[in-house]
Amino acid sequence: MASRPWEDRLREQGFRITPQRQLVLESVNRLGHGTPEEILVSVQETASGVNLSTIYRTLEVLESVSLITHTHIGHGAPVYHSQDESPHIHLVCDRCAEVTSVPAAAAAEFSLDLQETYGFDAHMTHMAVTGVCTKCSEDSRTETQ
Fold first, then answer.
1. From 3.30.420.40, 3.40.50.720, 2.40.50.140, 3.30.1490.190, which CATH number describes the 88-144 domain?
2. What is the pTM (predicted TM-score) of this model?
3. Is 27 exposed, middle or buried (0-12, 13-18, 19+ CB in 10 A)?
4. How many angstroms from the chain centroid is the CA of residue 65?
5. How far is residue 8 from each of residues 3, 12, 13, 138, measured CA to CA in Å?
6. Fold of the domain spanning 5-82
7. Is the pLDDT reported for residue 144 higher than 80?
8. d(CA 143, CA 137)
């Protein structure tokens, strides 16, 4: 049986393939974006004995071999997602906490301005922008009428 690319990446970096690593990676991919606690709940559907410290250690390993990455969306725990996703920015609604992913290219002009004006090469793939989503804006307008 042929190995999968994620297995090859772990082995190349000297890590073993374990059921926990597979379950965590599958959960991250299934959730799209997940906190360690959300990933734990997902993993425990299959392996009830897995605990939160195992999730954190596994996330650290998977991130070290570039299978996943994390973003700090708010004041809480980081949110993990697959590195296979195209680069994106997280738009986080301050009212309903909905997270919308938009292509990183949406910030291209801002990134270019940072480079030209300040000499700063921004990585626009590890960020969250807070504000108010369309639905909450519409709800707010409806309430004031």
1. 3.30.1490.190
2. 0.74
3. buried
4. 15
5. 7, 6, 9, 48
6. Arc Repressor Mutant, subunit A (1.10.10)
7. no
8. 10
